Amino acid sequence: MCAVWGLHFVVVKLAVGLAPPMFYAAARMTLVALIMAPFLRWHPGQMRAVLLGGVCLGALNYAFLFNGVRHATASASAIAIELYVPFATLLSVVFLGEKVGWRRVVGIALAFAGVAIIALGRGEARVGAGVGLVALAGLTEAIGAILVKRARLKPQQLLAWFAVIGAVFLWMATLVFEKGHLNALAEANVLFLGAAVIYSAVCASVFGHTAYYWLLQRLPVSLVASSALLTTLLGVSRI
Asked: What is the DSSP string of 154-205?
């Protein structure tokens, strides 16, 4: 899972240089929704958490992440997204009653300090803004992780709903906030762009997120979040 997500930063960085970020995200989530459509079921008593989780994990996180990656470097983005770990740890303490020791508290403080240095140390407002957007993506993912922890659906069912919610939200967002879709497609390497969408949908989402939700439902959120730090190491090493 971490290896697939690590390479995904490289794929996304290249792809959002060819197409508007939310357009790319919308295409990705549409493909995921089509693949996972057989798992769509209405679950009475569960849908509030599922719908809120979909807004966080299927819509807002990609809107923030892909726009952030477009402005920041891929390596800075791979590091900044790991603010998800301290965000998820703090939220798990507040809402799930999980316990963390002083070592994790120190680690959380260092994580925030490190990302602040990355965002401010390059002297470019555009890069700093990009890192900030990626950090917001980490926060929305952390909120979504808490909601997933409380949901009692199978991982495939969660992903199916999150993909549908994300596709609807992102198509509306790209039509309202982005321009030049047809011009971008006309000038882009359509073969590479299509391959990137397939990698994002099949590898990063269908495989990666199904595994991620499965882990969240069986292990403490703080443990799953911390183990995902390997994504950054693998992502930076491939950049």
From this structure: -HHHHHHHHHHHHHHHHHHHHHHH---HHHHHHHS-HHHHHHHHHIIIIIII
Question: Which residues in the chain come in under a pLDDT of 70?
Answer: 118-127, 238-239
Distance CA(106)–CA(144), nearest Å, equals 24
What's the pLDDT at 54? 93
CB within 8 A of 205, min separation 6: which ones?
28, 29, 32, 159, 163
DSSP of 91-138, one letter per residue? HHHHHH-----HHHHHHHHHHHHHHHHHHHHT--HHHHHHHHHHHHHH
Q: Looking at this protein, which amino acid is placed at residue 201?
A: A
Amino acid at 18: L
- The reported pLDDT for the residue numbered 239 is 55
Tokens of 80: 């900044």
What pLDDT shows up at residue 55?
A: 94
pLDDT at 119: 63
Instruction: Give the sign of the dihedral formed by CA 133, CA 136, CA 174, CA 17.
Output: positive
Are 43 and 157 within 8 A, CB to CB? Answer: yes
Q: What is the pLDDT of residue 167?
A: 96
Q: Distance (Å, rounded) from C-alpha 84 to C-alpha 226?
A: 9
Length of the chain: 239
